[in-house]
Structures are given as structure tokens and as C-alpha cells.
Amino acid sequence: MCGIVGYTGSRQAYPIVIDGLKKLEYRGYDSSGVALQQGSSLKVYKKAGKVAALEEHIGIASTLGTTGIGHTRWATHGEPSDRNAHPHISKSGNLAMIHNGIIENYAQIKNELIKEGYQFQSDTDSEVLLNFIEDIKTNNACSLEEAIRIALKRVTGAYVILIIDAEQPDTIIAARKGSPLVIGIGNKEHFLGSDASPMLAYTKEVVYINDYELAIVRPDELILKNLGNEVITPFVQKLDLELAAIEKGGYDHFMLKEIFEQPSTIADSLRGRLVLHESRIILSGVDAIQEKLRNARRVIIVACGTSWHAGLLAEYVIEELCRINVEVEYASEFRYRNPIIDGDDVIIAISQSGETADTLVALERAKEQGATIFGIVNVVGSSIARISHAGCYTHAGPEIGVASTKAYTAQLAVLMLLALKVAQERGTISNERFQALCHELNDIPGKVQWILDHEVDNIKAIAYKYKDAHDALYLGRGYNFPTALEGALKLKEISYIHAEGYPAAEMKHGPIALVDEQLPVVFIASQDAYHEKIISNMQEIKARKGKVIAVVSEGDEITPTIADDIMTVPLADEVIAPLLTVVPLQLLSYYIGVYRGLDVDKPRNLAKSVTVE
Ligand code: F6R
């Protein structure tokens, strides 16, 4: 959460920083600000609201300067407001700082500073950290760099900070623990960002900063040190990412673009891995821990949100195909509940961003206890990718819309490959079934394309019909249950309609009390082993005058006679079908959000990368 940008070089910093903030706005968008070095003084502008509000606020004011930092905020401490927006200015006025993360012991430090006579302008933990650094610098008569090191050894929590100092022209000092920071290397210029998107137009050479590292960044040098003041050689990597991947490309919203990208992103997830003619799946990450997986007595899946839903589906698939016991854990619960883990355990972490704080810390704990960590991550080089012993990237490309869509289907595709490969190695799947499922998987991109070609107008009409609903239920059984949860989450996020996902049979144990003629109930009713049972559940809703919307497989003749509205997907094996059935639900949420006049790419209160707990 929170996006940070920095630039130092010979160009004007402001346009680069503002453009970078717009690219990072998915990380938080309740306020934003910039600080620029102008000679020996600092110019700071900040404003509540989105980056556009900041630009309007700055208007024609001076934005000169070749070194600058910028921040887009997702509030943790203090309401979204002008004064709580970053950058913060130190008491002397010499330092400006932006921060992504949470300083957990800020209250104690704040009290110490208040006793020394400090007065704070904001409610943030960030302003406390900045003044703590300045206080150390003054009291110890040391350099800013040394003061930062001392301060960071005292604070607990997570941070990326970028500081500029009126007394050190052309210099940005940055440090990280637990939140992401990338530095792009240009020709006598450097770019800093929470991810690589702000620098993509200028350079492909980047350095991912690690925890407890501090960077002194000037136009022509990047000095990297640890908190013990030892110099570290930066590891420069080449970005495999094009600018077009982070632009809307003619779509009204990133979310719509990303839904429509799914035929190609799923194909990318499968490419080079699903080798049909050899009846083989190549996943080098799995090979790296082959023995562990082959002999595993259980697998624990750790994730949050949509990624957790992918994990839940993986539980069904892995248990059925591989006959391995799977436990699916919310990372936020797992990290705090002293789980029983040993060296035989394999933990699969699923994360789009690779930076989700709860997932990251859960993995660190499990790793300390000897577990093997396997990461299924979308963002290359992210923290979860780096702490994993082995893993697979999902290759969905940058996902900018805050609600996850293409990253989810890419996760499902990789998890299915993993399950098939492990099942083949363990001998728990017949050759015929293996081949059939591989072919089904291979057909998925084309089938998703079919949905996008044939169903959009129908789904738009359904969205329009139900756009004013206050609540919705999503029901599914077996492989369709995780999809029900995911459909409900998408609707909540994008439309602010209260929605709940349930196992369809569980409905009669309580939720059925909600059913009346106003309540839309979305059934995930593609062909599977429970189809007749789910039809009975639909009848139960109809008998109580509820409105039934059903996702059905092509060729289903019965469901359309019961349901009020249907969304059709091509026929597929029940194990693979969740890659299809979720697509109409993504579209339904998207169009309901649009018809309600909401900002679907930036839903209220949310942020794309949840780097605070
Ligand atoms: C929902 C959504 C979130 C994320 C969750 C985990 O649309 O995007 O629920 O799935 O915050 O994020 P990652 O996958 O980045 O760990």
C-alpha cells in the first residue's frame, strides 16, 4: 500500500514523479504529494484525493527541480487529508520524507519527541519517524545517513522511506524493510519506485532493494549499504516488461482490459509448461522440490483474498488428483496462531503482488520452522518470490485494476499444472485422465475467448437488471464453491453491494432466511457431479420467490427453465471449469460497478498491494 516514486538526474523531476504516481495509484489513492529540491530549499505540495487533485492544486506553481520524490497514500495512521498526506517535512524544514509501511512503535517514539518539545503537524507514524531521524542527526552531530541507520535499528514495523535533504543537492536516501523498493538505472539518472512501472519508459535496468538495505542515490551513483554500514554490490537485473502492458490500451478501465486479456494470459501461464505431445508438464520450480512434494504427507496453502480462493480450489484439485492432504490457511490467521509445522511440510504461497505483508510474514515464520516454501507469484522479483525456496511465476503480466481478475485465472492455471504434474509423479492419476485434463487445460484460452465473444451483451443486460440490488448470494458446490466465494468478493469490491458466497447446500442452514423477491442468488451451476443437487437448491430459492441467476454449461437444457437469467460457458471437465465460470462473474461485477457510476479500477478503501497487516 502507498506508492512511492523518486527521481534524480538532469531532467525535470516533477513530470516523471507525477506520471509515476499515476502508474502507482493502484497502491493507494486517498491523498498524494510531491517534494522537489529547488536549490537549497525544498518545495512540497500535497493534497487529499487522487493524483489528479494534486495536479489541480499545484496548477501553475513552480515545479522546477531535477530531484524529487512523490507519494500516493492508503491511510493507516490518520484520516486521508491534506495534512496527513506525504511528503512530511522535518521540524527544521530541511528534510522531506515519504513512507510506505507502518512504524509499530511510533507512539513511544512520539512521546519521547513531544517531551523534547516537538510538535507534530499530522497524525501519522511517518512524521514521527522523520523527526526521530532529524533528532538523532542533531543530537549526535552525525550525517543524515548515519542518523537514518540508527533510527531504523530502533523502529519496529515495515517501511520503505525516501528522504531528500535541502543540504544535500541531487541526493535521495532510501531504505527498506518489508515493503517493496525498486531502483531503475538510467544514463546519469536514477528512478525509484514501489514497482518498476514508473521507470519503464526510461530504463529496463533495475535493482530490487532488500530488507535492511539503505541506498544513497545520486544522478551518477548508487551506493548500497546494509544497516551495519557495509557496502553491498547492487545486483542489476533486466526487466522483461513492456510499457503497453501497464496502459489501458483503449479499454475504459484496467479491470475490463484485464478480463479481456485472459485468453492470452492463461495461454502465457501454460506456455512451455504443458507439453501435450509428450504427455508431460514442465515446471522447473516443482522439480526443485520434487522429492519433498512426492513424499509430502500434507501441503499447506497460505494466501489472502482472491489468492486464498485460488488456494481453496487447489485444495480440491490436489486432494483429488494427488491424494495429498491439503490445508488452506488465511495468512493473517496462520501467522499468529502458532501452527504446527515441521521440516516435512511444503507451504504453497499464492500471491499476485508477492508483497502481501500477512503472507510474507506467515512464510517467514514457516521457513524458520523448517518448512519448504513454494511461491506462486505474479510479480517477478517480489519479496515472496525471493524468500521462496522454489516456485512458479504466473505470467499474467502487470495487474493494475485493484480487483484481481487475470491474476486469479493465471493462479488457477498454474495450480492445475502443479496438481497434474505431482499426480503424475506420485502415480495417483491414470494416464487417460492425465491426458484428458491436459487437453482440457489447453483448450481453456479458446473457451474463455468464446465467453468474451458471445456473452458480454447478455451479461451487461443482467448487470443492468440487478444493479440496484442491496445484497446478493453466490452459491456453488464442490469445485464451484471457491468460484462462488470469488464471485461474491468481486461484487462487493466493485459495486459495494453486500454479497456472500456459500456452499450451496449450506444455504438451508441459515442464509435461506434472507431470500425474498428482491434477493438475487447467483448459482455456479456448470456441469459437474452435483448438477442435479444444485438444481434442487435453485428450486428451493425459486419456491421462496428469490431471483436466480445461473452460470451454466453450454447445452444445459434444464437450468434455463428454472433460472431467471443465465450466463453460459463452454462445457469443460469439472476440475478445469473454474477457469471458465469465474469469467462471467468478473464481467457481472464490472458492469454492475460501471452502471452504479463507480470507479471500478480504484474501489473505495482498497489498495492493490496490501503491504501492511
Ligand atoms: C481481490 C484482491 C485481494 C487480493 C489480496 C491478496 O480482488 O485483489 O483480495 O487477492 O489482497 O493479494 P496478493 O495476491 O497480491 O497477495
SSE arrangement:
Elements (H helix, E strand, L loop, with lengths): L2 E6 L4 H12 L6 E8 L2 E8 L2 H8 L8 E7 L14 E2 L5 E9 L2 H10 L9 H16 L3 H11 L2 E9 L6 E6 L4 E4 L4 E4 L11 E4 L4 E6 L2 E6 L4 E2 L3 E3 L15 H7 L1 H9 L3 E2 L4 E2 L2 H5 L1 H6 L2 E6 L1 H18 L2 E6 H4 L11 E6 L5 H12 L3 E6 L5 H5 L2 E4 L12 H21 L4 H24 L1 H11 L4 E6 L3 H16 L2 E6 L16 E6 L5 H13 L3 E7 L5 H4 L2 E5 L8 H18 L18
Parallel strand pairs: 18-19, 18-20, 20-21, 21-22, 23-24, 23-25, 25-26, 26-27
Antiparallel strand pairs: 1-4, 1-10, 2-3, 2-4, 5-6, 6-7, 7-8, 8-12, 9-10, 9-11, 11-15, 12-13, 13-14, 16-17
Helix pairs in contact: 3-4, 4-5, 7-14, 7-15, 10-14, 10-17, 14-15, 15-20, 16-20, 17-20
Bound molecules: fructose -6-phosphate.
Fructose -6-phosphate binds next to helix 10 and helix 17.
What this model shows, in words?
The chain has 613 residues and is α/β, with parallel strands linked by helices. The protein folds into three domains: 243 residues, Aminohydrolase, N-terminal nucleophile (Ntn) domain (Glutamine Phosphoribosylpyrophosphate, subunit 1, domain 1, 4-Layer Sandwich), CATH 3.60.20.10; 201 residues, Glucose-6-phosphate isomerase like protein, domain 1 (Rossmann fold, 3-Layer(aba) Sandwich), CATH 3.40.50.10490; 146 residues, 3-Layer(aba) Sandwich (Rossmann fold). The chain has 20 helices and 27 strands. The chain has an eight-stranded antiparallel β-sheet with strand order 3-2-4-1-10-9-11-15, with helices on one face. Strand 21, helix 13 and strand 22 form a beta-alpha-beta unit. Helix 7 runs parallel beside helix 14 and helix 16 crosses helix 20. The chain is globular. It starts with a strand and ends in an 18-residue tail after the last helix. The model has no long low-confidence stretch (mean pLDDT 94). The chain binds fructose -6-phosphate (F6R).
